[in-house]
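If your schedule permits, I should be very grateful for your opinion on a structural question. What I wish to show you is a protein chain and, alongside it, a tokenised description of its three-dimensional fold. Would you kindly read the sequence against the tokens and tell me how you understand this chain to fold? Here, with my thanks, is the record as I have it:

===
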Amino acid sequence: MWSWSPSPTERARYIQALMVMVTSGQVILGRQNPIEPLWMTYYVFMTLSFDNMLVKFIMYVRTMERHTIWKVEISHPETPTSRTRSQRLDFAQRLAVLWVPLVLAASVSILCRVFNVLPITLLRYGPVSNEKPVVMFSSLSLPAGCCPSVASINNSYADTVSVSVPCLSPEAPEDWPNRPLVYWVASPSHKAMPTSLQIREGRTSDGSKALLAGHVEAKPLELWPWMSRHGYEAQDIDTVLGKLNDETLGIGLYHRTFAYVAEIQVHPFPWFEEVAIYAIARNRVTGALSPKPAVSNVLHGKRCPPHCEICDRQGQCRRCQEGFRKDKDSTCHPCPEGCLRCPHGTSQCTKCKAKFGLVPYASKQICVPCSSDNCQSCDGPVQGAIPPSALPCHTCDPFYGLDLHGHCQRCEDENCLHCEGGSGCTACASGFVLDFGENVTCALCGPGCLSCSQKNVCSQCQEGFRLTAKGQCKACRPNCRTCDADDYCEFGGCFPGFGWQKRHWGFLIRPECEACRVQHCVSCDHNAHFCTECSEDFGVTTSGGCFRCGLGCTSCRLAGSCLRCSDGFVLREHQCEPCADRCQKCTAAGPAHCDQDGCFPGWTAVQATWDEGPQSFVCRPCSDPDCPKCNIKGPGNCDDVPE
């Protein structure tokens, strides 16, 4: 009887095919974008053709198909028992090698697609869903480029970079355990952006370990202060908030989504190459990761030298910290002891630190300690060839007096502002007056008294008090700033946020200060529901309400009629119109232009040759954002920073 039994090659084909099936299912379902599973399916089942290409290639490498072995067996004469045993053995082989693995692999693939669960992910991370992912702000395509992750050098801690990463979560901040967890990696900027799962694993786009990685818990975020703190203009903030609150876009800020921010401290930062920080967030409830990572600005590898306050991106120092001077090689060297500024060399100090005095000595300018810790000034020439170890004081701090030896002594009376040698008081603090008794002391003027010429005879009262004929301060009625002889508030005399209102007590009319009922209202005399003066940035409407002054307007008496504009705007017919981009002042040039000296720091004005106006300038950038000005050297360069 001729028969053929499966060779190791055939068994390997089944095993390899099953492995590819399970792995391809994991790869296909693990894609982040909806279109990617279709491409991956085509790639796996059409391009790979794993039975004809992948398996053959693997077995060729492993020399599994170098020799085809045909095995011919001459079996013994069959008997019913041997035939049954042979059939059972053949069935067991087929079941163990083919059908059980095939059914298991197919079941796993079907369950993955039905329940949206990846087997490898389930084993590694537990149950994970794609529901309610935390979205990074940078992936929303918001106006004004809002809001990327902002990386900056932390001046409080050496070798530390602070990264602020805003995100949107469907979980409300009141759900304390459900705050998003933000994962981040520091990756070289020349590499591609890593996927969300790679960032979760602490790896870069090529699968290698990131330079640094970690995770922090996000905190609830108020977007307006954050954007204002990170340089966004008021109109941009209004536009972004309007976009986020537009229900048609499905974001619904503070309705369906809530803002969070992760404040990341990267320490020690890898300064040896250019690095960007990539971050994603994880929903702690569903385990979903952000579909698209957020990326920070690239931080260049050359940092400021030690003791340098401002430097360019090439590490060249422009200005040293106080107490240091810049040398020709752009390094910062310490000034002599006690010296705050020495731009012309260590022997020529121009300003001393507190508690030191500037002394000319042997064609030098040096700093010598004052004789007392509470001395304000002790500058002056010295006698002799050798400077003293301490200088006599000329002026002492408040509540201290100068004695005959040039030392500062604490005044004996704690309310004495200035004294002579600690005992003879010459001036008292506010609310006190000199009392010339047996000893000169500072006596209290009286309750509510701001200043007086003698004890218990006040000349000026604090707000909320009135001065009586006897020189006493008597309290006005509640919420009243200035009042009449009957302690009733004068018209217009209420504190901000309160209005002068008439109240009838039988046949009598008594004025009172009542809280204004209009939001942002400062004064509402006669009618608590009709405002007559609004707080800053708001103006009065015709109906007595308070409405924001308008774009770029910082002060207005009436809504829509501006009195003063913010930087970057010019007042035209009671309206604030914007200047040119990055322009701070355009008083002479007018809207959409800039004055020659009106650009923001880090920008310079160039002539707008396409405009006929003689004052037509626009702003162009200097060499980098850290450059304060380039008015002399022009765009793309940087002027030297004075010491």
User: Anything to note?
Assistant: The helical segments are 8-29, 36-48, 54-61, 80-115, 119-125, 196-201, 223-229, 234-244. The mean pLDDT is 79. The radius of gyration is 40 Å. The longest strand covers residues 161-169.
